[in-house]
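Throughout this chapter, every protein is written as a compact record of paired, labelled lines. An example of such a record is reproduced below:
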Amino acid sequence: MDGKHQDLLKRIRSKQAFICDMDGVIYHGNRLLEGVKEFIAWLHDQNKRYLFLTNSSERSPLELQQKLQRLGLEIDKQHFYTSALATASFLASQLPRGTAYVIGEAGLINALYEAGYSMNDINPDYVVVGESRNYNLETVTHAVNLVKQGARLIGTNPDLTGPIERGIMPATGALIAPISLATQREPYFVGKPNPLMMRHALKRLGSKREDTAIIGDRMDTDIISGIESEIDTVLVLSGVTRRDAVQEYPYSPTIILEGVRDLAE
């Protein structure tokens, strides 16, 4: 390890707060990644603030807490923030107590309810799309016609795919595409790499951007989010990005590590 890498690692370790992606960083499917327990212990030992930030809108913070509990990690649900929560917060700021037609799972629907929104499949203010296991031609057709009637189109995140045990599955960016194409309306995506989600995360942490680092495994969401928000970035190679693929992008992370275990001193 050369001197420059050591200096960068020391700089990242000195940060007071960490925004951490989950899949590919903390776990793969239902398997905890190597060194994660040591990383969490280090965060606590060093009194670091941290937030697990996921573009997935499927699960609530409580469900994410329970998943990590099953994997052997005891973490309070206040440490989790999802694109569903960010989307609900954004919509509540734009149009308080509005209505939405939702294609998505319980994590998204509950977040909208808690933000003061009600569900409406007749004349909603918004059509909101997240990850969905009940996606079909009927729901897409209904969404298309609601958007044509004036509902605004919102996506929880722009991810085209998400990892599953057997490979990948279509994610929000892919699911919302037919609605966008049929209506010729561009959706607004709230999740990463939208800097809005980073600002929400910093506010939750009570941290300044210069005192914070973001850890992720994707160049096109995690790393670009940090760069556009002027937050130092850590790319870990435990997820989807290979080291030789980094040069394909016109931007670079602050530092590249094999996994979060490298941060635990």
Summary: Residues 84-189 form a domain with the Rossmann fold fold (CATH 3.40.50.1000).
